[in-house]
Amino acid sequence: MPRSNALFISLEGIDGSGKSTQARRLADWLTAQGRDAVLTREPGGAPGAEEIRHLLVQGDPERWSPETEILLFTAARRDHLERTIRPALEAGRDVVTDRFADSTRVYQGATRGDLRALVDTIHSAAIATEPDLTLILDMDPEIALTRGLARNSGEDRFEDFGLPFQQKLRAGFQALAAEQPHRCHLIDADTTPDAITQAIIARVTRHLR
Ligand code: TMP
To answer: Which atom of ligand 1 is nearest the CA belonging to 159?
Structure first.
């Protein structure tokens, strides 16, 4: 019998903020609590969406306009939702995703012109789903950018927009947390990975049903 109390949690933040490590730790912690957690990510999280990911995270920063990016990220998200997120939640499994729609609201909606209205229109037409809880790792963009670029992952298209872009992103995520205080929570990420994990667990614990 699937659990009806499955939680959908997203982790958000600027590039290099340590989300992926924390998403993995959170999924492991949920599993250790006897829950069944699926760890996934965006762009990606399903085979077709992972193919779209390559188009988005590699290559020249100016390769796509922000408007085209909104459409590509949303196409990837729809595939992720249909094939991974919804089936997991319907089976009673928790879902922990490394990024979801808030990344589009901030990266495409609030950095290169004010495209938030377009993001919201496309989101409500094609996705119309929000996480139960969103944890935003908030940290100094200079440190995060150095860390992100040092990884040399070959997926640096957004890091290549430079520090002012990352500073706009941080401000965008902070504004989103203020706009949607019931769902989005800032987590201080200018600290140790263990302290971040503890802050995340404390926040998630309040939501466990
Ligand atoms: P990642 O490095 O966290 O895996 O994410 C890949 C990049 O894609 C990252 O620089 C953020 C960016 N991105 C957007 O610009 N919009 C989106 O909607 C998502 C999901 C990611």
So the answer is: 10
Distance 29 CA to ligand 1 centre (A): 24
Break the chain into its structural domains and give their ranges: 8-208
Q: What is the DSSP letter of 14?
A: S
Query: Does the Cβ of 71 fall within 6 Å of ligand 1?
Result: no
Class of 8-208 in CATH: alpha beta
Please name which of 85, 89, 83, 84 lies closest in space to residue 36, comparing C-alpha atoms: 89
Atom of ligand 1 nearest to the CA of 104: 18
Whether the model pTM is above 0.90: yes
Q: Distance between CA atoms of 143 and 146, rounded to whole angstroms? A: 5
State residue 113's pLDDT score. 86
State how far the Cα of 168 lies from the Cα of 164, in Å rounded to an integer.
6
Contact 17, 189 (CB under 8 A): yes
**143-182 pLDDT per residue, tens:** 999 888 888 888 889 988 999 999 999 999 999 999 999 9
- Pick from 11, 57, 58, 64 the residue to mutate for probing ligand 1's pocket: most ligand atoms within 8 Å of its CB: 57
194-205 pLDDT, tens digit per residue, is: 999 999 999 999
